[in-house]
Amino acid sequence: MKTFKIIRPDENIRPALIDKINNLTKPKGSLGTLEELALQIGWIQQTLSPTLQHPQNIIFAADHGIVDEGVSLSPKEVTWQQISNFLHGGAGVNFLCRQHGFTLKIVDAGVDYNLPYDTGIIDMKVRKSTRNYLHEAAMTEEEMELCLERGAEVVRNCHKEGSNILSFGEMGIGNTSSSSLWMTCFTNIPLEQCVGAGSGLDNVGIRHKYEVLKQSLDNYRGDRSPHDIIRYFGGLEMVMVIGAMLQAAELGIVIMVDGFIMTNCILAASKLYPEVLHYAIFGHCGDETGHKLLLDHMKARPLLNLGLRLGEGTGAICAYPIVQSAIRMINEMDNFAHASITKYF
Ligand SMILES: Cc1cc2ncn([C@H]3O[C@H](COP(=O)(O)O)[C@@H](O)[C@H]3O)c2cc1C
Ligand SMILES: O=C(O)c1cccnc1
């Protein structure tokens, strides 16, 4: 399997970073989460003057065989139709990218449609849709490997373009189902608490989705290793995100984590390489059932709580101005000595 070299950033810089933050003209700790973010990004970048360069939101898209079982309110073709909307600039993620200066990249990981690649969509298609994991593994070992490699390749290209912060998003009707299965397998939280409305199921629909996913789990005969669970229940776009996140961490790129699906992707990535979590900033806690439970389980502290349940990277991008403030704080605030203010602590 593709390997990644992900290290915990060097601790040696931390005292100097803490010292710099504590000497800014404010009571110690009074800028709270902004101070934590500045420390984290300075630590990742190994500098006392961290920067944010060329932010990009990368949407990985694919279809899911399990959709045949009626687990989503939305029909499968919404995946490619929404991609077309992304290209025309009319989706939720588009106005947020425009507002916050993000470049938007769309990656076809496995959409069940012949997409027009001359529009700028990045062709990384591994196959058209996963198989239906009610009956068989969603993807083969080779397909999983291709997903990891291609996700990593997309991020290497962003790195070459100068990005040091990336947000990841997804589009794939049915992908809250894969997410719920990864969540229950990796956290041992009962499946019932991991299954929610996704793109809009009512209670009857959620019950049916739960029954299908429960049956899929009962039918599973794999070895329960992280690798096998990722492969068996994964979405092609979600495994590509894992490759992308791992490559980002290897390159020292800050990872902005979006909603329920992306939180599950970084959870799964951390089962392969635990150190990936040092590079993650959790953008928000959304309304999809299980998201808060999962964040709590991971001891993650999301920046926002806006009741979002869309995906596409929207919640991560909404949180970006807070990250920008943290970077301005550490670079632009004066210190006690220079400002001639008596330091009383
Ligand atoms: C128009 C539309 C736009 C979306 N953008 C993101 N999603 C979100 O909904 C899907 C997951 O929900 P489920 O598992 O219930 O299918 C994903 O595509 C996710 O990105 C959308 C869903 C719809 C309908
Ligand atoms: O939080 C998410 O990522 C999410 C929730 C519902 C539907 N699509 C995405």
TrEMBL record:
Pathway: Nucleoside biosynthesis; alpha-ribazole biosynthesis; alpha-ribazole from 5,6-dimethylbenzimidazole: step 1/2
GO biological process terms held by the UniProt record: cobalamin biosynthetic process
SUPFAM superfamilies linked: Nicotinate mononucleotide:5,6-dimethylbenzimidazole phosphoribosyltransferase (CobT)
Catalysis performed (reactions): 5,6-dimethylbenzimidazole + nicotinate beta-D-ribonucleotide = alpha-ribazole 5'-phosphate + nicotinate + H(+)
EC primary class: transferase
InterPro entries (alphabetical): Nict_dMeBzImd_PRibTrfase (IPR003200), Nict_dMeBzImd_PRibTrfase_bact (IPR017846), Nict_dMeBzImd_PRibTrfase_N (IPR023195), Nict_dMeBzImd_PRibTrfase_sf (IPR036087)
Protein's UniProt name: Nicotinate-nucleotide--dimethylbenzimidazole phosphoribosyltransferase
The entry's keywords: Cobalamin biosynthesis, Glycosyltransferase, Transferase
